Amino acid sequence: MSDDGSTGALLVARAMVGAARREGYLVEGEPMLSSPELAEAEKILFVKMFAELKRHLREAGRMELAEDEIAALFNFAFGKGAEQAYNYLSGQKPEFDIAGMFQPRVALYVDDRLMNFLKNTPAAAVLGGAFVDHQRQHPGEEPILALFEALKWTSRIGAHLALGLMEDWNFTPNR
What we know:
By secondary structure, the protein is mainly α. The protein is 66% helix and 0% strand.
């Protein structure tokens, strides 16, 4: 990893995008769906997530996360990315609730079709597995920075999939 971390971040991004492409979540040559509003919401959410991670580890008296906590973070990031996309398309105010961040189930506020998709796709587990594989191949990387880079891409992939699905469904919000 370079001194500024950019090389490590690029390697993590490639690992996440590569796994998403292998599973068909992203198509080679097609841009990821997003918006400036979603990018801004991502920043706010991830600042809160990082603060919660620090608090969680401090209260637990540990320096590292357990495997089940890492898996929960991938579920959380994927689901929250989809929820942010839902809020964006439905004209709702973004939600930045981080409650349950380390729990296996994530409370999301989306319509039933999107919730069923999220419950039935293994995307969060696939991306979490890609991160674990990446970490094994690059043991010298800063683990928390690499984790948050992977979570950022997981959230973006969740938003991309949600935006695509809602577009396919001709989603119209109930306003």
